[in-house]
Design a protein that fits this description.
Largest sheet: 5 strands, parallel
Structural class: alpha/beta
Bound molecules: adenosine-5'-diphosphate, cytidine-5'-monophosphate, magnesium ion
Keywords: ATP-binding, Cytoplasm, Kinase, Nucleotide-binding, Transferase
CATH class: Alpha Beta
Subcellular location: Cytoplasm
Main location: cytoplasm
Protein name: Uridine kinase
Strand order of the largest sheet: 2-5-1-6-7
Radius of gyration: 17 Å
Number of strands: 7
CATH architecture: 3-Layer(aba) Sandwich
Shape: globular
Number of domains: 1
Helix content: 25-40%
Number of helices: 7
GO cellular component, one term: cytoplasm
Strand content: 15-25%
CATH topology: Rossmann fold
Length: 206
Protein backbone atom coordinates (compact mmCIF):
# COMPACT_ATOMS: atom_id res chain seq x y z
CA UNK A 1 0.00 0.00 0.00
CA UNK A 2 1.25 3.49 -0.81
CA UNK A 3 2.64 5.36 2.20
CA UNK A 4 0.43 8.27 3.27
CA UNK A 5 1.93 11.39 4.80
CA UNK A 6 1.09 11.72 8.47
CA UNK A 7 -0.83 14.69 9.83
CA UNK A 8 1.31 16.42 12.45
CA UNK A 9 -0.38 18.30 15.30
CA UNK A 10 1.77 20.67 17.40
CA UNK A 11 0.74 21.20 21.03
CA UNK A 12 2.56 24.16 22.59
CA UNK A 13 2.12 26.41 25.64
CA UNK A 14 3.91 27.48 28.80
CA UNK A 15 5.22 25.15 31.44
CA UNK A 16 2.38 23.79 33.60
CA UNK A 17 -0.28 24.86 31.12
CA UNK A 18 -1.48 21.28 30.68
CA UNK A 19 0.13 20.35 27.33
CA UNK A 20 1.22 16.90 28.39
CA UNK A 21 -2.16 16.27 30.00
CA UNK A 22 -3.94 17.35 26.80
CA UNK A 23 -1.62 15.17 24.70
CA UNK A 24 -1.89 12.15 27.01
CA UNK A 25 -5.69 12.32 26.93
CA UNK A 26 -5.57 12.09 23.14
CA UNK A 27 -3.10 9.21 23.37
CA UNK A 28 -5.37 7.41 25.88
CA UNK A 29 -8.24 7.75 23.48
CA UNK A 30 -6.51 6.78 20.22
CA UNK A 31 -3.81 4.47 21.60
CA UNK A 32 -1.50 3.13 18.88
CA UNK A 33 -3.36 5.02 16.18
CA UNK A 34 -1.47 8.17 17.17
CA UNK A 35 2.26 8.67 17.63
CA UNK A 36 3.42 11.05 20.35
CA UNK A 37 6.71 12.93 20.23
CA UNK A 38 7.65 14.93 23.34
CA UNK A 39 10.00 17.78 22.45
CA UNK A 40 11.46 17.43 25.98
CA UNK A 41 13.03 14.15 24.88
CA UNK A 42 15.17 16.21 22.53
CA UNK A 43 16.81 18.29 25.28
CA UNK A 44 20.54 18.21 24.58
CA UNK A 45 22.68 15.68 26.43
CA UNK A 46 25.24 17.26 28.76
CA UNK A 47 27.44 14.36 29.78
CA UNK A 48 30.42 16.73 29.78
CA UNK A 49 29.06 18.70 32.75
CA UNK A 50 28.70 17.64 36.40
CA UNK A 51 25.19 17.56 37.91
CA UNK A 52 25.72 20.82 39.84
CA UNK A 53 26.37 22.64 36.56
CA UNK A 54 23.64 20.89 34.56
CA UNK A 55 21.22 22.03 37.27
CA UNK A 56 21.95 25.67 36.45
CA UNK A 57 21.47 25.53 32.67
CA UNK A 58 18.72 27.44 30.90
CA UNK A 59 16.19 24.82 29.80
CA UNK A 60 13.67 27.30 28.43
CA UNK A 61 15.76 28.78 25.61
CA UNK A 62 15.32 27.33 22.09
CA UNK A 63 19.03 26.36 22.02
CA UNK A 64 18.48 23.90 24.89
CA UNK A 65 16.91 21.51 22.36
CA UNK A 66 18.59 19.43 19.68
CA UNK A 67 16.26 20.72 17.01
CA UNK A 68 18.29 19.26 14.11
CA UNK A 69 17.70 15.76 15.46
CA UNK A 70 13.99 16.40 15.95
CA UNK A 71 13.67 17.71 12.39
CA UNK A 72 15.51 14.65 11.05
CA UNK A 73 13.21 12.35 13.01
CA UNK A 74 10.06 14.13 11.82
CA UNK A 75 11.24 13.80 8.22
CA UNK A 76 11.92 10.07 8.75
CA UNK A 77 8.45 9.52 10.23
CA UNK A 78 6.95 11.43 7.30
CA UNK A 79 8.81 9.09 4.97
CA UNK A 80 7.26 6.11 6.75
CA UNK A 81 10.45 5.15 8.64
CA UNK A 82 10.84 4.07 12.26
CA UNK A 83 12.92 6.27 14.61
CA UNK A 84 14.85 5.71 17.83
CA UNK A 85 13.69 8.64 19.93
CA UNK A 86 15.92 9.79 22.80
CA UNK A 87 14.44 9.90 26.31
CA UNK A 88 15.09 12.44 29.07
CA UNK A 89 15.71 12.21 32.79
CA UNK A 90 14.63 15.46 34.51
CA UNK A 91 15.94 14.33 37.88
CA UNK A 92 19.48 14.10 36.44
CA UNK A 93 19.04 17.05 34.03
CA UNK A 94 20.35 14.86 31.26
CA UNK A 95 19.38 12.60 28.42
CA UNK A 96 18.74 9.03 29.54
CA UNK A 97 20.54 6.02 28.07
CA UNK A 98 17.39 4.35 26.77
CA UNK A 99 15.85 5.22 23.43
CA UNK A 100 12.28 4.58 22.40
CA UNK A 101 11.35 2.96 19.08
CA UNK A 102 8.63 5.00 17.41
CA UNK A 103 6.74 3.64 14.42
CA UNK A 104 5.33 5.97 11.77
CA UNK A 105 1.57 6.54 11.96
CA UNK A 106 -1.24 8.52 10.37
CA UNK A 107 -1.28 11.14 13.15
CA UNK A 108 1.70 12.53 15.06
CA UNK A 109 1.28 14.69 18.18
CA UNK A 110 4.32 16.89 18.80
CA UNK A 111 4.23 18.42 22.28
CA UNK A 112 6.47 20.94 24.03
CA UNK A 113 6.86 24.53 25.25
CA UNK A 114 8.60 25.62 22.04
CA UNK A 115 7.17 23.45 19.25
CA UNK A 116 5.76 26.57 17.57
CA UNK A 117 9.00 28.56 17.85
CA UNK A 118 11.21 27.27 15.03
CA UNK A 119 9.82 28.04 11.57
CA UNK A 120 11.24 24.75 10.22
CA UNK A 121 9.19 22.81 12.76
CA UNK A 122 6.16 25.05 12.25
CA UNK A 123 6.26 24.37 8.52
CA UNK A 124 5.83 20.66 9.22
CA UNK A 125 2.73 21.16 11.39
CA UNK A 126 -0.77 20.74 9.96
CA UNK A 127 -2.60 21.89 13.09
CA UNK A 128 -1.14 24.15 15.79
CA UNK A 129 -2.58 24.21 19.31
CA UNK A 130 -1.54 26.58 22.12
CA UNK A 131 -2.58 25.48 25.61
CA UNK A 132 -3.07 28.51 27.81
CA UNK A 133 -3.28 29.04 31.57
CA UNK A 134 -2.53 31.96 33.88
CA UNK A 135 1.07 32.20 35.08
CA UNK A 136 0.08 31.77 38.74
CA UNK A 137 -1.76 28.53 37.99
CA UNK A 138 1.15 27.28 35.91
CA UNK A 139 3.79 27.85 38.58
CA UNK A 140 1.59 26.33 41.30
CA UNK A 141 1.04 23.24 39.16
CA UNK A 142 4.74 23.09 38.37
CA UNK A 143 5.68 23.19 42.06
CA UNK A 144 3.33 20.29 42.81
CA UNK A 145 4.45 18.29 39.79
CA UNK A 146 8.21 18.88 39.97
CA UNK A 147 8.44 18.04 43.68
CA UNK A 148 6.48 14.81 43.09
CA UNK A 149 7.71 13.73 39.67
CA UNK A 150 10.94 15.50 38.73
CA UNK A 151 13.00 15.22 41.93
CA UNK A 152 13.03 18.96 42.70
CA UNK A 153 12.62 21.03 45.87
CA UNK A 154 10.50 24.17 46.15
CA UNK A 155 13.43 26.56 46.59
CA UNK A 156 15.09 25.28 43.45
CA UNK A 157 11.84 25.46 41.44
CA UNK A 158 11.20 29.07 42.51
CA UNK A 159 14.77 30.11 41.79
CA UNK A 160 14.74 28.49 38.32
CA UNK A 161 11.34 30.00 37.57
CA UNK A 162 12.51 33.54 38.32
CA UNK A 163 15.92 33.32 36.63
CA UNK A 164 15.10 31.46 33.40
CA UNK A 165 11.60 29.96 33.06
CA UNK A 166 9.63 33.20 33.42
CA UNK A 167 11.85 35.48 31.27
CA UNK A 168 12.20 32.85 28.51
CA UNK A 169 8.45 32.29 28.54
CA UNK A 170 7.94 35.98 27.78
CA UNK A 171 10.61 36.05 25.09
CA UNK A 172 10.08 32.74 23.29
CA UNK A 173 6.94 30.84 24.34
CA UNK A 174 4.24 33.47 24.70
CA UNK A 175 4.90 35.08 21.26
CA UNK A 176 4.22 31.72 19.54
CA UNK A 177 0.58 31.97 20.58
CA UNK A 178 0.19 34.09 17.45
CA UNK A 179 0.92 31.06 15.25
CA UNK A 180 -1.76 28.86 16.82
CA UNK A 181 -4.87 27.71 14.97
CA UNK A 182 -6.50 26.80 18.28
CA UNK A 183 -5.96 28.34 21.72
CA UNK A 184 -7.40 26.36 24.61
CA UNK A 185 -7.68 27.18 28.29
CA UNK A 186 -6.69 23.61 29.12
CA UNK A 187 -10.00 22.77 30.81
CA UNK A 188 -10.66 19.08 31.11
CA UNK A 189 -13.74 19.02 28.85
CA UNK A 190 -13.19 21.99 26.66
CA UNK A 191 -14.42 22.58 23.15
CA UNK A 192 -10.89 22.75 21.74
CA UNK A 193 -10.11 19.26 22.97
CA UNK A 194 -13.29 17.96 21.31
CA UNK A 195 -12.40 19.72 18.07
CA UNK A 196 -8.96 18.12 17.97
CA UNK A 197 -10.41 14.74 18.94
CA UNK A 198 -13.02 14.94 16.15
CA UNK A 199 -10.39 16.01 13.64
CA UNK A 200 -8.16 13.05 14.51
CA UNK A 201 -11.11 10.66 14.26
CA UNK A 202 -11.90 12.05 10.81
CA UNK A 203 -8.27 11.67 9.67
CA UNK A 204 -8.12 8.09 10.92
CA UNK A 205 -11.38 7.20 9.12
CA UNK A 206 -10.34 8.72 5.80
P1 LIG B 1 2.77 20.87 30.91
O1 LIG B 1 3.13 19.61 30.18
O2 LIG B 1 2.13 21.90 30.03
O3 LIG B 1 3.90 21.43 31.68
P2 LIG B 1 1.17 19.13 32.56
O4 LIG B 1 0.18 18.53 31.63
O5 LIG B 1 2.32 18.30 33.03
O6 LIG B 1 1.67 20.54 31.98
O7 LIG B 1 0.36 19.68 33.81
C1 LIG B 1 1.05 20.18 34.94
C2 LIG B 1 0.33 19.73 36.18
O8 LIG B 1 -0.94 20.36 36.24
C3 LIG B 1 0.07 18.22 36.20
O9 LIG B 1 0.27 17.74 37.50
C4 LIG B 1 -1.39 18.08 35.78
O10 LIG B 1 -2.00 16.99 36.41
C5 LIG B 1 -2.00 19.40 36.24
N1 LIG B 1 -3.03 19.87 35.30
C6 LIG B 1 -2.96 19.83 33.96
N2 LIG B 1 -4.06 20.37 33.39
C7 LIG B 1 -4.84 20.77 34.43
C8 LIG B 1 -6.12 21.42 34.53
N3 LIG B 1 -6.82 21.76 33.45
N4 LIG B 1 -6.58 21.67 35.75
C9 LIG B 1 -5.88 21.36 36.84
N5 LIG B 1 -4.67 20.76 36.84
C10 LIG B 1 -4.16 20.46 35.65
O1 LIG C 1 6.30 19.73 30.90
P1 LIG C 1 6.90 21.10 30.80
O2 LIG C 1 6.37 21.90 29.65
O3 LIG C 1 6.83 21.88 32.09
O4 LIG C 1 8.43 20.84 30.48
C1 LIG C 1 9.27 21.90 30.09
C2 LIG C 1 9.98 22.48 31.30
O5 LIG C 1 10.93 21.55 31.79
C3 LIG C 1 10.76 23.75 30.97
O6 LIG C 1 10.07 24.88 31.43
C4 LIG C 1 12.11 23.55 31.69
O7 LIG C 1 12.40 24.58 32.59
C5 LIG C 1 11.92 22.26 32.47
N1 LIG C 1 13.15 21.48 32.56
C6 LIG C 1 13.81 21.41 33.79
N2 LIG C 1 14.97 20.71 33.89
C7 LIG C 1 15.50 20.09 32.83
C8 LIG C 1 14.85 20.14 31.57
C9 LIG C 1 13.66 20.85 31.48
O8 LIG C 1 13.34 21.99 34.78
N3 LIG C 1 16.63 19.41 32.98
MG1 LIG D 1 4.92 18.49 29.94
Amino acid sequence: MKHRMPVIIGIAGGTGSGKSTFTNRLKDEFKDQVTVIYHDNYYRAHDELPFEERKLLNYDHPDAFETELLLRHLELLKAGKTIECPTYDYSRHNRAKETMRIEPGRVILLEGILVLFDSRIRDLLDIKVFVDADADERILRRILRDTKERGRDVENIVDQYLTTVKPMHGLYVEPTRAFADIITNSGMNDVAFDLVRCKIREILKA
